[in-house]
Amino acid sequence: MIIVTGATGGLGGAVVEHLLERMPADRIGVSVRDASKARHLADRGVRVRQGSYEEPAALRDSFAGAEQVLVVSGNDPAADLAGLHRNAVEAAVEAGVQRIVYTSQHGAVPGNPYPPSEVHTATEVVLAESGTAWTALRNGAYGPLDQVLGPWRSTGEIVRPADGPVPYTDRADIAEATAVLLAGDRALDGPVNLTAPTAVTFDDLAEIASGLTGRTVERVVMDDEEWMAGQVASGVPEPVARLLLTWYQAARTGCFAEAGPLLGELLGREPRSAADRLADQAAV
Question: Counting beta carbons within 10 angstroms of the beta carbon of residue 142, is it exposed (0 to 12), middle (13 to 18) or buried (19 or more)?
Fold first, then answer.
């Protein structure tokens, strides 16, 4: 049996849907904070049990009988995420799980200035010390490109701090590839990159956007603190703006530059590129 945590969230829910296309529902289970929100899965034959990272005993019960568990990383910045992930890993080990698959972050290495990377590197250490086979899927950045690039469609400009190459990745591709890995025979040990095959910069994206729209989209580089001040003045909470700034800083120091072919190999096709995603936005 394969157990998926966070199955009522965007990534976890999409993984379950892809698993249902590849294996019988009675071989799939979910561990969710609120079981009532997973009733649509129970109605389709998926085993639904309540379990949250704050409750190790409930987690052990929800993981019972699992050969593999997908531990979807938490996203509450106020929580001790590394500690919560440790709870999930320890519960999986105690439940006798044969392999733990964890949704890590691309560029999760010591020295990355983007704070969430610290959570993922710490969790990967816990996995390595667990004594159980494990895979850390270092997923490429899959947030909405409008959030990353700003309102380029209306302004004709990408106005952001200095950046660097990033293989912007489609979350739908990551979810499908994760299900392929869980349901298949291929075993991947340790950390692996799951990204679009090509890393691009904002200069690249401005050129792509220009070609798509038929008008010039300019790349404007802002000073870090000037950009911060503008974000705060527009109503963005300072901690949120500061976190976003560290992401740009990590990109320009090359923390996200490495891309690889694994995502395409698992999908059996070319993953969607940043250009594909920009094309979708330009068509709206």
Answer: buried
- The dotted CATH code for 2-141+170-195 is 3.40.50.720
Query: What is the chain's pLDDT, residue by residue, as a tens digit (284 residues)?
Result: 999 999 999 999 999 999 999 999 999 999 999 999 999 999 999 999 999 999 999 999 999 999 999 999 998 888 899 999 999 999 999 999 999 999 999 999 999 999 999 999 999 999 999 999 999 999 999 988 888 888 898 899 999 999 999 999 999 999 999 999 999 999 899 999 999 999 999 999 999 999 999 999 999 999 999 999 999 999 999 999 999 999 999 999 999 999 999 999 999 999 999 999 888 877 66
The pTM for the full model equals 0.94
Domain boundaries, the chain: 2-141+170-195
Nearest to 35 by CA among 27, 26, 46: 46
